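Field reference: sequence -> structure
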Amino acid sequence: MVSRDRVVVATCILIVVALAWAYLIGMNSQPALQQNPLAAMPGMSMSSGAPHDYRELLLTFAMWSVMMVGMMTASAAPVVMLFTGMSRKRRDPGTSTNALVFGLGYLAVWVSFSAAAALGQWGLQRELLLSHDMSITNSVAAGVILIAAGAYQLTPAKRACLKQCASPLGFLMANWRDGTAGAFAMGLRHGLFCLGCCWALMTVLFVFGIMNLAVVALLTVFVLAEKLGRVGAMVARAGSLVLIGYGTLVLAT
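Structure field:
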């Protein structure tokens, strides 16, 4: 029988993912917002694609945060659900709350990454290096990003982080901490491993368009597939070959 705690946690995960994707789909359906997030604000110009103040930076950060939540929450679901089950078996108080705090710790890492990504996008926009669909305009830079992302897939750092992400039970047994603070610390640590595993893949969005939902969805599925044990390691290597091959093609054209 499925415990009440697991039902609560699973429901929260589904709601968070659904809301994030609903926001992304809604934003993607309005081309003006893709070019200038401030277009949604009353009295702001919709004609400019380059940021003019820090309010746009804040909205860009919000966009990246929602996108990372939509992409990465699903990949954290297995470890969060396993944490919930283990916490319940240990008869820890506040199992559901601690599971949600674990999730917050995990997402805190990706929100921090979103801040860095937003700054990168903001800087590229200021230098007019992004097109209207928010993809990088320099083909050499695009090729280098793709090849670098593919090469990172083969590094020891990637393998070490992927091993932690692909083995939720092993991670929890090696890093268990009691209490709410412990749950947040574990979520934060797991998030750091996940960041170490996936950060390079996220830079690919600058090549294909930051709000290209087809690529966002593909990366989401790829990240999930990477975490399927031995199969995941094969998926990671295959992804490396595709990225390096395509990056080389971009540089050659």
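Note: Residues 37-51 have pLDDT under 50 and may be disordered.
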